[in-house]
Inverse folding.
């Protein structure tokens, strides 16, 4: 899913695997009800947005931080740009067909 990062995906897959193993041992196994849900996360996030101590923490933590802007230097991007003629592209397409890719 697009909103699951690598860490969340690993956690989810571990939980799913553990559930699968427990159900293999006991078909009547019922997982415990979650203590909180996504709604609780959103509510807490809204509360945190209004908390000045949290804002001050992140301002202090990120003081001196310079944003890495990868897409502003067009000259630098040109180093990663390649223009190929049609004959070269046809060779690549033929090779792809030969390799069934």
């Amino acid at each position: 899913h697009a909103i699951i990062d690598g860490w969340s995906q690993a956690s989810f897959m571990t939980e799913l695997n553990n559930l699968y193993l427990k159900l293999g041992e006991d078909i009547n196994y019922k997982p415990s009800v979650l203590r909180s849900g996504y709604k609780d996360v959103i509510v807490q996030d809204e509360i945190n947005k209004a908390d000045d101590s949290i804002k001050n923490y992140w301002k202090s933590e990120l003081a001196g931080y310079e944003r890495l802007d990868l897409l502003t230097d067009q000259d630098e991007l040109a180093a990663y740009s390649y223009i190929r003629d049609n004959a070269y592209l046809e060779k690549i397409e033929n090779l792809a067909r030969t390799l069934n890719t």
In short: The chain has five helices and no strands. The helical segments are 6-25, 38-49, 52-61, 74-78, 86-98. The two ends are 25 Å apart (CA to CA). Residues 55 and 61 are 10 Å apart (CA to CA).
